[in-house]
UniProtKB/TrEMBL annotation:
This is Propionate 3-nitronate monooxygenase. The keyword Isomerase does not apply. SUPFAM superfamilies: Inosine monophosphate dehydrogenase (IMPDH). The keyword Glycosyltransferase does not apply. It comes from Streptomyces formicae.
Length: 356
C-alpha cells in the first residue's frame, strides 16, 4: 500500500464497516488502539447519527479510523415485482405482528448531508460502497486531508475508481459476508469472483493500492492476500463476534451454531445480493425476491427488527462470510494481536520456504 495508507495503522488489518450496528464506536476504537484500522459504518444512519458516532469514537481513541458511506442508488427496480414481493411477505407481517415498510422510504441514505459533515470535519479515511463517487467529490475530500477508498468487485469497477481519483480500492471477493459492493446490481452478472483470483486481476488493471476483503478469518489468510498483491486485509465476520461489536447477540451466536452450517448470496432481505447464514426466511423467500434495492430493504426492515425482538434468528438477516465457522469470541484488541502474530508466523514460514 502507499505510505499514506500504511501510516494509518501498525498492522495491515482493517476492521470492515458493517452497517446495521456491528461497527460501533467501541469496536472501531478497540481495533485502532490495538494497531489495526477501525471503521464506522454510516450506512442506514442519519447524517447526525453518523456525526454523533464520530464524536464518540474520537472520545475513545486518538488513533486514525475510517467511515464508510453508501452511494445513492439509481431508480431501476420493477415496481410491479416489488408489489408482488410485498404480497408474499404478508404472512411474515402477520406472524411477527408488524407492518411492512414503505419501499419508497428513500434512495440516497443521506449521502450529500454526510459528505458535507465529512468535508467540514474531516476524518482520516472515507470509503464508498455500491458505486464510485464523482471525481469532484473525491477531490474535495482529498483537499480536506482525507484518504478515499472505493469498494470494487471487478477490474472495470477498479478502473472507474482510479479514473475518479480514489487513493485505493477495497477489492471484495464473493466470499465476503454482507452485501456485495457491486457498482450496479446486474442480475445477469453472475455470482462474483473469488478473492485470490480477483486481487491479481485488479493489480494488473490499475495502479492503486489494494485492501483485500472476503472470507478472511486467520493471519495465514492475511499473509496469502498480501502475497497475492494486497497491501492490507479487511475482516468483518471475524470482528462481528467480538464483545465490543454492536451486532445482536443472536447474530453473534449464529456464527458458530451448527444449525446454521452454510452461507448463500440472497436478495431476500434487501433486494441486493448479500451473503448470510441460510435460515428459514432466506429459504422461503430468497428465490422470489426482486432486484430492488433499497426498496426491499425498506420493506423488510420492520420484519427483521421484530424477529430480533422475538429472539428468532430464523427471521433475521444473519450476514456472514464463508469463513464464519472460524469465528473466535475474543476481545477486539486481543483478536488484532492474535491475527498479527499469525501473520508474522505465516510470513516467516513463507520466507523460509522461499530461501530453501
Amino acid at each position: 500500500m502507499s505510505s499514506a495508507l500504511t501510516e494509518l495503522c501498525r498492522y495491515p488489518i482493517v476492521q470492515a464497516p458493517m452497517a446495521g450496528g456491528a461497527s460501533c464506536p467501541q469496536l472501531a476504537a478497540a481495533v485502532s488502539e490495538a494497531g489495526g484500522l477501525g471503521f464506522l459504518a454510516a450506512g442506514y444512519k442519519t447524517a447526525d447519527g453518523m456525526y454523533q458516532e464520530i464524536k464518540q469514537l474520537r472520545g475513545f481513541t486518538a488513533r486514525p479510523f475510517g467511515v464508510n458511506l453508501f452511494m445513492p442508488q439509481p431508480q431501476y427496480a420493477d415496481a410491479a415485482a416489488v408489489d408482488v414481493y410485498r404480497h408474499q411477505l404478508a404472512g411474515e407481517a402477520a406472524w411477527y405482528d408488524t407492518p411492512l415498510g414503505d419501499p419508497e422510504a428513500g434512495r440516497d441514505d443521506g449521502y450529500e448531508a454526510k459528505l458535507a459533515i465529512l468535508r467540514d470535519d474531516p476524518v482520516p479515511l472515507v470509503s464508498f460502497t455500491f458505486g464510485c463517487p464523482a471525481k469532484q467529490t473525491l477531490d474535495a475530500l482529498k483537499r480536506a486531508g482525507t484518504l478515499t477508498v472505493v469498494t470494487v468487485t471487478t477490474p472495470d469497477e477498479a478502473q472507474a475508481a482510479q479514473h475518479a481519483g480514489a487513493d485505493a480500492v477495497c477489492v471484495q471477493g464473493v466470499e465476503a459476508g454482507g452485501h456485495q459492493g457491486t457498482h450496479r446490481d446486474d442480475p445477469a452478472a453472475g455470482s462474483g469472483t473469488g478473492l485470490l483470483t480477483l486481487i491479481p486481476q485488479i493489480r494488473e488493471t490499475v495502479q492503486l493500492p489494494v485492501i483485500a476483503a472476503g472470507g478472511i478469518m486467520r493471519g495465514s489468510q492475511i499473509a496469502a492476500v498480501l502475497s497475492a498483491g494486497a497491501g492490507s486485509a479487511q475482516l468483518g465476520t471475524a470482528f462481528l463476534v467480538c464483545p465490543e461489536s454492536g451486532a445482536n447477540a443472536l447474530h453473534k451466536q449464529a456464527m458458530t451454531n451448527p444449525v446454521f452450517n452454510r452461507t448463500e448470496l440472497t436478495r431476500a432481505f434487501s433486494g441486493r445480493p448479500a451473503r448470510g447464514l441460510v435460515n428459514r426466511f432466506m429459504r422461503e423467500h430468497g428465490r422470489y425476491a426482486p432486484a430492488a434495492y433499497p426498496e426491499v430493504h425498506h420493506l423488510t426492515s420492520g420484519l427483521r427488527k421484530a424477529a430480533a425482538a422475538a429472539g428468532d434468528p430464523q427471521g433475521m438477516a444473519l450476514w456472514a462470510g464463508q469463513g464464519h465457522r472460524m469465528a473466535r469470541d475474543l476481545p477486539a484488541a486481543q483478536l488484532v494481536e492474535v491475527l498479527a502474530a499469525e501473520l508474522s508466523a505465516a510470513s516467516a514460514a513463507l520466507a523460509l520456504r522461499s530461501a530453501s
